[in-house]
């Protein structure tokens, strides 16, 4: 398959539109002016973040809670918050299918940084049921989107629940630019989404497959007492200057992870992610993470040479279920699935209600200068 000669975006990605010279539309449309606008937005977010960190000091038993997945970004975020900002950090891990490399990173980082760490390990029976249903009933954007945007709200909600109960004013996530999709969150989760919205996916309730106890695992502020104070949920890497290669090198230099292998997202990601990539490669013909990494390459935030090679390797071992790709077969067996069960049969839906999106746009740092790009994504029909 052809890919952009500059950012490696596969031709099959909707909107890639490669020209005769092999350059994709996003690269053709990328201009220094758009980079200047992005820098103004980043600076507005950085000012807001600095104020939030200052105001959080001494407001609770900890100044902030950081969801710790074992990836390079969450590990390095704790280091910066504790050592550069002097904050009291509580690390929080929801153990859902975390692999051995990520667990090694978690234990090593917690020990080296000497931070307190809470681990919540929910019932695997529920997650097996959930993953199986989602993969057999994927929405139009495929497996990674379908599973991640039900899976992520569960551990995000766990972090919010813990912070709210303990009176911690900030939840700070290690999402890097491009994560998650911008209609869900950029620099900050919409505050009304935290204080007013039930995060229970309507498709799960409508399916009739999940009981009220299972659905109650999702964040729902209506279950909390009147007058509850909710934390802000921010992504500092959307406010700081971010360089993926620099973060990968730094966590190794600091001894927070064992090696470059342990710093790579290829090795530290959730094992079920291999099955999600496999499903999307089969259904769409390209890796679902390609647009994210292409954007980082285009903006000079990721190493093109590294991802040109690694992208080909990842796709090869995923489709053939080799090496780390063995997790495809293992998880299909665990879930009792066959290739033909990996079906797209639902339309997508907007992430947040209109009133949340409108408030988010108005309140975002930089909005008063007209530089806050809150994007609206409409429902997409299933093929």
Quickly describe the structure.
This protein is mainly alpha-helical and 383 residues long.
What are its keywords?
49% helix, single chain, three-stranded parallel beta sheet, two-stranded parallel ribbon, Rossmann fold, disordered C terminus, 383 residues
Which helices and strands appear, and what pairs or packs with what?
Elements: H1 25-29, H2 32-56, E1 64-67, H3 72-84, E2 89-94, H4 100-113, E3 116-120, H5 124-136, E4 138-139, H6 143-166, E5 170-172, H7 191-196, H8 202-207, H9 212-215, E6 232-234, H10 244-253, H11 260-263, H12 265-268, H13 273-284, H14 290-298, H15 304-320, H16 326-335, E7 344-346, H17 354-363
Parallel strand pairs: 1-2, 2-3, 4-7, 5-6
Helix pairs in contact: 3-4, 3-10, 13-16
Question: Can you describe what's shown?
Answer:
The protein is mostly helical and 383 residues long. The chain contains 17 helices and seven strands. 38% of the residues are buried. Helix 3 packs across helix 10 (244-253) and helix 13 (273-284) crosses helix 16 (326-335). Residues 372-383 have low confidence and may be disordered. The protein has a three-stranded parallel β-sheet, sandwiched between helices. Helix 3 (72-84) links the parallel strand 1 (64-67) and strand 2. The radius of gyration is 20 Å and the shape is globular. The protein has helices at residues 25-29, 32-56, 72-84, 100-113, 124-136, 143-166, 191-196, 202-207, 212-215, 244-253, 260-263, 265-268, 273-284, 290-298, 304-320, 326-335, 354-363, and strands spanning 64-67, 89-94, 116-120, 138-139, 170-172, 232-234, 344-346. The chain has a domain at 46-266 and 347-369: 3-Layer(aba) Sandwich (Rossmann fold), CATH 3.40.50.
């Amino acid at each position: 398959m052809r890919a952009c000669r500059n950012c490696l975006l596969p031709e099959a990605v909707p909107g890639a539109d490669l020209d005769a010279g092999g350059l994709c539309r996003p690269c053709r449309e990328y201009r220094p002016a758009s980079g200047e606008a992005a820098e103004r937005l980043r600076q507005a977010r950085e000012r807001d973040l600095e104020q939030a960190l200052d105001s959080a000091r001494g407001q609770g038993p900890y100044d902030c809670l950081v969801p710790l997945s074992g990836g390079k970004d969450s590990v390095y975020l704790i280091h910066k918050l504790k050592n550069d900002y002097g904050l009291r950090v509580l690390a929080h891990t929801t153990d859902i299918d975390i692999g051995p490399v990520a667990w090694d990173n978690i234990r090593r980082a917690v020990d080296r940084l000497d931070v307190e760490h809470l681990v919540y390990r929910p019932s695997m029976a529920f997650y097996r049921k959930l993953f199986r249903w989602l993969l057999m009933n994927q929405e139009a954007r495929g497996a990674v989107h379908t599973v991640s945007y039900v899976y992520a709200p569960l551990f995000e909600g766990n972090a919010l629940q813990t912070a709210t109960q303990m009176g911690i004013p900030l939840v700070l996530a290690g999402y890097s630019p491009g994560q998650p999709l911008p209609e869900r969150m950029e620099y900050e989760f919409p505050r009304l989404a935290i204080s007013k919205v039930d995060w229970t996916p309507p498709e799960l309730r409508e399916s009739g497959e999940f009981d009220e106890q299972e659905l109650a695992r999702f964040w729902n502020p209506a279950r909390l007492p009147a007058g509850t104070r909710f934390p802000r949920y921010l992504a500092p890497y959307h406010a700081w200057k971010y360089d993926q290669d620099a973060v990968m090198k730094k966590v190794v230099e600091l001894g927070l992870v064992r090696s470059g292998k342990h710093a790579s997202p290829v090795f530290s990601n959730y094992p079920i992610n291999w099955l999600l990539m496999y499903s999307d490669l089969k259904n769409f013909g390209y890796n679902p993470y390609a647009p994210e990494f292409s954007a980082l390459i285009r903006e000079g935030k990721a190493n093109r040479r590294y991802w040109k090679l690694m992208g080909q390797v990842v796709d090869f071992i995923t489709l053939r279920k080799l090496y780390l790709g063995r997790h495809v077969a293992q998880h299909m067996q665990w879930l009792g699935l066959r290739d033909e069960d990996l079906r797209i049969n639902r339309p997508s839906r907007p992430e947040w209600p209109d009133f949340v999106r409108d408030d988010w746009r108005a309140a975002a740092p930089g909005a008063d200068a007209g530089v806050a790009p809150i994007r609206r994504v409409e429902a997409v029909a299933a093929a």
